[in-house]
Each structure stands twice: as C-alpha cells, then as structure tokens.
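Researcher: Here's the sequence for the chain we discussed earlier.
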Amino acid sequence: MKRIGMRCLPWQLRTGILLVLILAIGVLARELVPRMLRAQSVHFTDGLLLTTNRDRLALCVEPVAAPTVDLEVARQRMDAALATLTQHPHWRPAGLAQNAPVVEIGCPGKPYLLEPGVSVKGGKPTGDPVAQRVDVPSRFRVFVYILPEPELARIFGDTSIRRAPQEMFCEGDSCAEVTTGLYLSPREVHDAPFLSDQLAKVIGLELAKPLDPGSPRPDGG
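Model: Thanks. This is the structure I predict for it:
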C-alpha cells in the first residue's frame, strides 16, 4: 500500500488536520494541566484533616441500596455528634478547630467496599488499592454511607467494624489513606453514643467514654 505523506495532501486538508490536532491538544491541556497543578499544591499534613486542601472537618452522607432514612435528619444527627466531639481535648491540637465542621448530603464517590472484587476479611478490605488512589483528595474527610442492616452484615459479618479506606493519596513515594468510608445502618445513625464513638474512631479521636454534650469544653470555650 502506498503511503501518502502530509506534504502530498492539499493545503486545505493539511490545515484542517492541524486545526483538529491543536483543538484536541487544547482540550487535553484544559483537563490535565489544572489537575496536575492541583495535585502539586496538595500535601500531607500532621493534623487529622490529613491533607492541606482541607480547611475544616467535612463529612458527606449518602444512602446506598435504598435504606429507609431521612437524610436531613441523619445530617442533623451527625452535626450533633460532631458538636459533641468538639469537646474532645485533642480536637484543637489535631487541627480540627480552625473552622466549624460541616456535614453535607451527597458524596462524590461510590463506596469502595461495594466495588467489584472487594470484600472484607478479618476486618480489612481486600481488593486493588490502585482503585482508591486519587490525584486530589476530596474535601470530605469522611464519606458516610447508610446501608440496610442485612447489607452491613453481608459486608462486615458479625464484626463491629464499620469503616474502610475510601481514598488513597500519594506524595512522592509516600502513599496513605486520606479519606475514610464509614458504613452505618439507619438505626446506628440514631444511636447517639454509637455514632459519636464511630465518628471519633474514623476521624482519629478515640473516645474512652461518651462525652456529655452539656459538659464544658476543655479549652474553656
């Protein structure tokens, strides 16, 4: 088959091909360059927010497998639990007090534990960790997924574990979990002590005992 070089094509066709290539490169640049710049500007941090692109503790809540739940009520329950956790003596030293925590309805990602080929064994998820890797971590530190109790039992068995890594982030050769998935039933969302305990664990604040919402803040606030 005889090859036809660009120089053999009419100049109008050559110009058209070049324009298409330039447009394609422009589209790719608009997609990739901002993403690369954002990724370069994100770093690990010592606080419990874990990355520098987060200015507050933010949680999102999402129903999965059609559980019967009022999302606005669930959001309010989590708001109340976070208000309790702000009394924890490690809240401020952990970098969580710079702005008020927020809970929003709707998460930007699907539950990792429900991805094909992923399961939980011995309390730890098995699967391809590459699927969890992100160029830029979500602004949400925790993705809260509300599932029917039979689905929770299928995933976690009879363990009390309710959390698993959701997003992994790499900076240089260092990779770590920066976003955690918390899996709860509608009943557990309404169990204030259980909810506070689970949120404390998933954030990194281990509670020795439930905090009294009416007790004074350790910092005097």
